[in-house]
Here is the input.
Amino acid sequence: MSLGRILIFFGVIFGLTVGTHYYLWARLIRDPMWPSPWRQIATITLILLALSIPASMLAWRTLPRNVAVPVSWVGYIWMGSMFVLLVLLWGGEIARWGWVKYASMTSVNGGRREFLAQLLAGGAGVMGLALSGWGVWSAIRPVEVKRVPVRLKKLPESMRGLRLVQLTDMHIGLTIGKEFVDDVVRKVNALEPDVVAITGDLIDGTVADLGDAIAPLGEIQAKLGTYFVTGNHEYYSGADSWLGFLRSLGIRALRNERVELEKNGEVVHLAGVDDWTAHQFGGDHGADVARAMQGRDTSKPVVLLAHQPVQFDEAREHGVDLQISGHTHGGQIFPFGVLTRLVQPFLSGLHRRGDSQIYVSSGTGYWGPPMRIAAPSEITLIELDHEAAA
Here is the structure.
């Protein structure tokens, strides 16, 4: 990326940050005309919170880990809280608009306008604090197992009950570490899976920084193996290095290829493709569903691991029976999922199109703000069954 584009990028980020915080200051502090010294204290606090956002982004590279971690927690929690406050305040703009229109036609005095501003600011503040607290608790509490039964027409009777555990979007980094991975591995092994599939966005950092935190994944016990496909975040953190490291843990990456999973004398194909954006990073990276499907026995069911749901249309063209994806986080912080649906065909859950199905996990970890609102994290246990012909 050229210097000019970098400057433009950071200029846009700076402008959005300043503009957003000015709006928050205007609606939460200026318009309600809170008495001194609370107005000054609130203004200083908002400025410090604004500065915590770039500080959290730079913490990993510029600060010792024992300092970077708390700085990141503050900055990332504020990012999430800021989004929640914006949504609430935008909703309040409707009430404000109605009040202003009413006031213009009557003799409503300034005191009542001030009271309305205080009511809207106070309501948004209290509700925002409550929602943010719930979101943080939802994100950091122990992740639970979600059981998803899936019926496949081509699944042999002798393979009914095959257990596939999906982990996705763990985003191990500054605010998610080794203890989280240890807990996930214990829960996965307790499920006694046949297959474990890690569908991308495992990390946010380099092997040197996060290798020790990821190492417990090598203790996963899956009868037919543990498999991995890249997500977009692997390419921000040195995908080739991570692929080599995972290989050393006994985790096989499926890169536009497939393997045969054999159980009770029958076979299921398991295929995997690079992330949809991988071609942008050069080398031999890039999604190729056709290559992964080439030469397969079409009488056998095929399960495709693909990080992004947007790859489902192509998968259907190649007769994929089930695609397993992540990437969306289920929206993570409601109503952000509305924006996610603009670029992804599915947000979460199991969906069918013709003879093909797709399951989209809400994610095992979280990204950015350690918050989840109406989109709980999950370890997904997919239990395959035979679907009788209609």
